[in-house]
Every structure is written in C-alpha cells, then in structure tokens.
Design a protein that fits this description.
The complex is a heterodimer. In chain A, the strands form two sheets. In chain A, strands 6-7-8-3-9-10-12-11 form an eight-stranded mixed β-sheet, sandwiched between helices. Chain A has a four-stranded antiparallel β-sheet with strand order 2-1-4-5, with helices on one face. Chain A is built from eleven helices and twelve strands. Chain A has one domain: Rossmann fold (3-Layer(aba) Sandwich). In chain A, α4 packs across α5 and α6 runs parallel beside α7. Chain A is α/β, with parallel strands linked by helices. By secondary structure, chain B is an all-alpha fold. Chain B has one domain: MetI-like fold, CATH 1.10.3720. Chain B is built from 14 helices and no strands. Chain B is globular. The termini of chain B are close together. Classes of the chains: A alpha/beta, B mainly alpha. Chains A and B meet through α2, α4 and α6 of A and α10 and α11 of B. The structure holds adenosine-5'-triphosphate and magnesium ion.
Chain lengths: ~325, ~325
Amino acid sequence: MAKNEGEAVLRAENLKIHYKTKKSYVKAVDGIDLTLRKGETIGIVGESGCGKSTFGQGILKLLPQKTKYYGKLLVRDVDVTPLRENDMRKVRGKVVGMIFQDPMTSLNPITKVEKLFYETLEEHNPGISFNESREVTAQILQKVGIEPRRMREYPFQFSGGMRQRVMIALALVLNPDIIVADEPTTSLDVIVQAQILNLLDELRQSYNASIILITHDLGVVAEMADRIAVMYAGHIVEQNEKEKIYYEPKHPYTKLLLKSIPNTNPKDLELTFIPGSPPSLVNPPIGCRFASRCPYKMSICDEKEPPVVEIDGGMVKCWLYTQGSDNQ
Amino acid sequence: MSLRSYILTRIILALPMIFILLVVIFFLLRIIPGDPVLAILGGKAPLEVIEQKRHEMGLDKPIMVQFFDYLKDVFTGNLGTSTLTNRPVIEELKDRFPATLELTIFAFIIALLIGLFWGAESAWRKDEPLDIGARVYSVLLYSVPVFWFGLILQLIFASYLRWLPVGGRIPAVTSFEVRTGLYVLDAIMSGDWKGLLDVLRYLALPSITLGMVTSSIFLRMVRNNTVLILSKDLVKAARARGLKKRVVLYGHAVKNAFVPIFTIIGMQFASLLAGAILTETTFSWPGIGSYLVMKIRYRDFPAIQGTIIFFGLFIVVISIIIDIVNALVDPRVRY
Ligand SMILES: Nc1ncnc2c1ncn2[C@@H]1O[C@H](COP(=O)(O)OP(=O)(O)OP(=O)(O)O)[C@@H](O)[C@H]1O
Ligand SMILES: [Mg+2]
C-alpha cells in the first residue's frame, strides 16, 4: 500500500468525545481509530448527527468547555486530548486549519479582510507589521483567485463563493499540515462547489497538506478523497480506499448509503432510503449500533459490540466479517 | 446614500417631531391645573395686582393668539423670558446645560463600561456565577427608582460614611477658570488637580447613581446579544485560527453584538435624560433637570416650554451622533 507509507500527521486512537448536557453525556464520538497521512485526503461521510463535525472540531478542541475527551488524538505526535486552551491556541490555525460550511456566518462580515489576516498572522508571529502581513495576504489571496486589492473590503461585500475562498485562504495562511473542511461546499451552488473543490485539491498539492473532508455528499468525496471513513452513530463502521468503498463496500450501512445516492439514470428512479433512525447517543445499544436497521442482522449483533476487522486493506466494524478471526 | 445626506435627512425628519412636541407641551401646560400668576404672587394677592400681572405676561390674550406668538418667537430662535426671573430662557439654559452634559456623559460612560465588560464576560461564562450575578444586578437596578437608589447611596456614602458630599456641584467659587462649563475638563485644562478631585467628589454619587441604573439595560442587551453571536460559526472560526479570548470576544463577538444595540441606544439616551431629571433633583445638581422641576413648580411656562424643546433637540443631536458612531463600527451602514 503506497498510501500507507507516508508520515502520519494525525492519529486517533480509541478517541471518544462526549458532550456534557444537564443530566447526561452525549457520546457523539465513541471510540474511533483513524490515521491521516501527509498529503492524503480522507473523506468522512455519514448521515446527519453521526458525529462528523464533533470529530472535526474536536481535533481543535473547539467544543464546549465541559466536553470530555478520552483516548488519544495525536496531532503531529502530540496528544491534544489533555491540552488546555492556551496550548491548543498554538495548534489552531498553525498546525490544523479549519474551513466551515457557511462562509456567510463563519467570516466576520464587518471586519476588513486584511485585518482578519493580520490578527491571525500576528497571533502566531508576534511583531509582524501590518505591511508585512498585507504582503503575505496578497500572495495567498492571489493563490485562491481573489484580487489582492480586495483585501481592503469587508466580507459582506463578497459573494458566497468568494467568501469561501477568503475562508480557505485564511485557513491556509499559516501553512498548516492539516486542513479540516466541514461541509465546505454545502452552502454553495453546484458550479461554485466544483470550483472550490478543485481549488482545495490544488492547494493541498502545492502545500503538501492533508485534508479531512467532512460531508454527507458522497459525490464530493468521490471527487476528492483518497480514503473514506464511514461514520455511524459515533463509530467509524468502515474505512478503506475510495475505490474499495465505492465498488466493494463491506459494511451493510455503507452498502445502503451507496444505494441511497440519487440516481440520474431514468430507468432507476426508485430511491432507496434506509428505514429506521440512528440510536440514541446518550444510551447507545450495547450491541452493534446499526443492528436495528440492518437487513443482515444476526442474534449476536444485539448482544455484543462488533470488533474492528482488518479486511481487504481496510477496516470494517461488523460481525459478518469475523469468521476466521476468533470472535474477539 | 452618503453619510452626509443621511444625517441631513435625519435632521429634516426630526423637525416635525420637535414641532409636535412643541404643540403638545404648549397646550398641556395650559390644561393642567395651576396658574402661573398665582404661583408667583401667591394666593393672597389683591385682584388688581393679579390682573395687572396677567396682562404683563400676555396671559389675558386668546389662547390661539398666545400660541402663534409663541411659534413666531421659537422660529426666530427666541425661547422667551422666564416669568420667574425675567431672564431670557436661553441664557438660563446655557448656564445650566454644562452641568447636565457633564452628568450625563459620566453616567453614560459608567453605564457603558459596566454594560460592555460585565455583559461580555457574562456571555463568555454563561450560567456561571458572574453571569448569574449580572442577571440579579440588572433586574434589581432596572426595577429600582432612580431617586430612591440615589437616596440610598446618599445615605450610605454621604450621610453615614461621610466620604462624599451629599449634593451640589462644587463650592460656590471654583479654584480654576471656567471655560467650557464642564468642570472636569476645566480643571484639567487649568492643571488644577486638587480642584479636579473636588469636582469628581461632587460628581461621583450623581453619575454613579444614574450610570448604574442605566447600566442595567445596557448590561442585559450586551450580554444577550453577545450570547447569540458567540453561538455563531464566526466565533468558532476565529477560535480555530488560534486567536486569544480577548480578540475573539471583543474584536469579533461584541463588535457584532453591538450592531443591533446601536439602534436602541438612542432611545436609551432619552431615558438617561429622564433619569437625569430625577438624579439632579435628588442631589441638587444644578443642571437642566432640576431647573425643569423648579420651573414646573412655579408654572413658568416659557421656561418649561424652552427646556422641553431643548431636551428634544439634545436627543436628536445625540441620536445623530450615535448613528455616526454606528456607521463607523458597522460598514454595512456606510455602503
Ligand atoms: N453542544 C452539544 N451538546 C450536546 N450534544 C451535541 C452538541 N453538539 C452536537 N451534539 C450532538 O452530537 C451528535 C453529533 O453531532 P455532529 O454535529 O457531530 O453531527 P454531524 O455528523 O456533523 O451532523 P451533520 O451532518 O448534521 O452536520 C448529534 O446527536 C448532536 O445532537
Ligand atoms: Mg456537521
């Protein structure tokens, strides 16, 4: 596996992220293993509420203060789970950059673009002058396809696609190793979507960065990702190279997810959807979390959590694939 | 629309408001019980003297004639002569305005500082003790009458502890040259630090009273709006770039939270002035508020009318200034 030879820039080991609510914990991410290598793009897919954004924002610990982190989350070999706010600030933007879904709400509309860049650069390079910052800003804006002179404008003067370009430039300006892009194109129209995805991919190459691409749009990951991790109710139920996921899905959930992609073929207009709904994340079932909706359900599925099985170069968390490996 | 034409429109729109104010106050004064002549001469004056005085003051003319005379005067910039002191109302207002301006400026600053910092920090630490304290504070101070709160402070800090003077603005003669009438400024300009300390000692209780009462509304507005903005992605995005809490909270969250606040700050200022009237009376602060109360007692029609118009204009000017500041903070207003 050529892909698996690059240096790991991010590694989650049995990572759990639990939100604290008044009476209980929401186990939004509940024990995931994932390795992101240099230059690689991993797509994280799954239906709404399965914990994708929680994982993405958990990497930078942007979640509410009382959120609990268990297991390990190595960002360039530093475990960030025990880090406090002040140490996390050095990781944010510098090691991991983040792009949000809606640039209309994620970019302060009333602060000049040049100032957004300046405060970011200044935070990580104290003493940088405003003019130096402008030069850096001009270069990066050029790269994302925005005329540098527009740095004197305010984000509210930009269109949605242009704002997302500013957001991307802002996430890249400190040259981070990892970019977390959480639904970066969901709020944009189709043509702009493609442009933004291309831009992200180009920039990944020229900066030799790695991307975690969070989306529920399988079309988007098909275009960009090298590997795909499928999440369901706080677990990664399957991960493998993109082609393997698309052509030889293993987990029943992955299979159903692929079937539910709307098809443009007029003969095949029938849309499959997955009946039922995901389990509670407060008191998840003791067995497999997908069991209640799974067409291949066996009796063990309700009784015991399935192990992660290595198969076909990837991993799957399902009892169907445990024959041979002795049930643990 | 450029800022200038915007301001011009604002002024033009304000004129009918001032006119309505003027009409209402003119007739209201003549409807409410109380006779200005009797108020001056007392009830025991002989009838001829009363009639004589009534004629002098022009009060024997038909009311519509009085009204149009009055309008004519106002539009030529003449607010009339006080029936109590025989001095031009304009002169009297000029004498007293700096005291009110000084009081309201300091009260406003106190209200803004408390509201801004406590509000922002409470929003950041939502539901923690600081935030709960802010809620209790703003409910208490919102529901307490200004004059009552003033009296309590007066009792504690002036009568009981004797740290601060009970009332008034400054001992009769100032040790510094009065140029602007804003004593704080005058004392600083003369380099008279002892004088400044004196001025501040007198200013402290009235401005803290008015400032704290006004801060309750500010505090709540800043806190609630900031909580709202803090839940937005722009805050998460700012944190995701590694920015410090100070920059995230004040540079991004509060800045955006202030946009809706600006639109109501103008009205807040009007209630600040209303509070100033009561505060001035409580602390015998020689400003326009206590002037108005005194003039109402003596049914000094020209003085009352003049003061009300003056208040109206003052509020218009302030709300225009607030609009300008708003345009500076929120570029969307400018473009
Ligand atoms: N602050 C929070 N407190 C408690 N629970 C939360 C909080 N934020 C999210 N959750 C819950 O955590 C779970 C995972 O949420 P998350 O936002 O990670 O889902 P997602 O996969 O990103 O979904 P989507 O595709 O809709 O963005 C959801 O059940 C959600 O309700
Ligand atoms: Mg999400």
